Amino acid sequence: MKRKDRKRAHKTDADHVRDVNLLRTNKRTILFNNKEIKAIDDYCMKYAVHNRSKFMREVIISAIIKKFEDDYPTLF
After folding, report:
1. Does residue 36 lie in a domain region?
2. Residue 53: CA atoms inside 13 Å, Cβ hemisphere, count?
3. How far is Cα 11 from Cα 8, in angstroms, rounded to an integer?
4. Is 76 among the domain residues?
5. Which structural domain, as residue segments, surrounds residue 53?
6. Contacts of 44 (CB under 8 A, 6+ apart)
7. Which letter, b or e, does each residue of 9-35 get, where b requires 16 or more Cβ atoms within 10 Å of its Cβ?
8. Which of 4, 9, 27, 60 is most buried by its number of CB atoms within 10 A?
């Protein structure tokens, strides 16, 4: 049995479910005006961003997480 096959054979059902939940199967489309796309292009050139999808996903999710943290109820 090859090394890859052994690793794959040891995966549990829970690992499979977790992997399925992390698959990116949902699509959203964003429209940008000319100034916005120029700003994104300039940023990506300046900071050597090669994967724009990953970059935008990280920026959007980090903004959402920050907002959730800011809105989290406190006792005082």
Report:
1. yes
2. 4
3. 6
4. no
5. 3-71
6. 52, 55
7. eeeeeeeeeeeeeeeeeeeeeeeeeee
8. 60
In sequence order, the 6+-apart residues with CB closer than 8 A to the CB of 43 are: 49
Helix (H), strand (E) counts: the chain: 4, 0
d(CA 14, CA 12): 5
* pTM for this predicted structure: 0.65
**Mind listing the pLDDT tens digit for each residue in 5-56?**
555 556 666 666 678 888 999 999 999 999 999 999 999 999 999 999 999 9
Name residue, tokens 């109820």.
Answer: 73
25: in domain = yes
